[in-house]
Amino acid sequence: MAAAGEEADAASPLDRRLAPLLLFENDRKTADETHLASDGDATLFFYSIPSKQLMRRRVAEMEGHRYWTTPQGWLLMASRTSPVTFLWDPFTGARVDLPADLDGFLRGDAPIKRCLLSSNNPTVLWHCRLGNAEGGDDGGGGRWLKHEYDFAAAGGATLNGVLQAMQRLTSVGDKFFTSLINKVVALDFSPAGPQFAVIDTNKAAHRRPPSGCVSTTELVESQGSLFRVSFSSSDLHMPFVAGIGVFKLDLAAQAWVRAESLGGRAFLVHDGFGASLDPQEVGLKGDCVYYCMRNDKGLYVHDMERGTTTLRDPSPYLGNHCCTTKFLMPTC
To answer: Beta strand pairing status for 266-270 and 288-291?
Structure first.
């Protein structure tokens, strides 16, 4: 089928000119999808957001590794058969070796929401620091370091609340941030060890959704600032979003302030992921939020200036029930 494009060689990296991409992880296929890929076919489906083109590709590195996406474009790769871990650019094939996963925290079948978290013990952070071949206790490049923390130190009243917040951990400069109700938590990987700092945001403007609504939140780092993108609906199980709000963290005022624009940037957001791009560099529209929802193949584009949301259907041959989507970003 022409919409699916031609299958590339297994060793070929993806074309950076088509980035950012939506990656569809198709574990099951309906009858309508069998003509896109035969049973046992290890190809993946990619949708180019700028060119609106659906492609089918075999990517050898993705077949032999578990992988986690990042807003900076690099994938964290973990071999399925060895302790080898590395960062990998799917568009150029560039690779940055990481310490071996000798403890096996990246292997196993248990889900890992973010690469800094351990699936075996939820209040454990694994971290390493690049650029120091000698390693050491400061998180050098020689090995992964393990840090156990008390959930109360992360500003949470309950363990479950902290675990959900840590799934939204977002890097801003040399620190990491996440959000709780009326709080922002900063995480600093200092030489003395990871340290949490809790910032009270009780003064935040529009900090809660309207009465009777439910809200989900994702964090985005953009040009050195932290943004919160909130999606609200009248029912958590509804298949559509009723409202979108974007807020910028004002550290001096300790408040989330509503943002009327994105400063000309384009945000790409889905469950547990948020990234910011210069739209002119990648062929997107500025001041727009591009987002995906669970169990939904659609790509939604919310225009901040117009206050409208449009839907893109990457292909009528991909079913919602079998699609898990991830953004593949051009590397910074």
So the answer is: parallel
Structural contact between residues 26 and 37, judged by C-beta atoms closer than 8 angstroms: yes
The segment with the largest mean pLDDT, out of 24-33, 123-132, 140-149, 180-189, is 180-189
Query: For residues 320 and 30, is the Cβ–Cβ distance under 8 A?
Result: no
- Contact indicator for 214, 232 with CB cutoff of 8 Å: yes
> Which tokens sit at 24?
């569809």
Q: CA–CA separation, 229 vs 267, rounded Å?
A: 9
List of residues 6+ apart from 61 with CB closer than 8 A: 67, 77, 88, 90
Geometric angle at alpha carbon 152, from 149 and 154, rounded to 5°? 65
173: amino acid identity, one letter: G
Residue 70, SS3?
Answer: coil
**Cα distance between the two ends of the chain:** 33
Asked if 26 contacts 318 with a C-beta cutoff of 8 angstroms, the reply is yes
Name the helix (H) or strand (E) containing 56.
strand 53-57
pTM for this prediction = 0.75
Q: Tell me the per-residue pLDDT of 42-59, one tens digit each, with 9 for 90 and over.
A: 578 899 999 999 998 888
Query: Could you read off the pLDDT of 215-242 as tens digits, one per residue?
Result: 788 889 999 899 999 988 766 555 578 7
- Distance, in Å, from the CA atom of 330 to the CA atom of 186, rounded to the nearest integer, reads 26
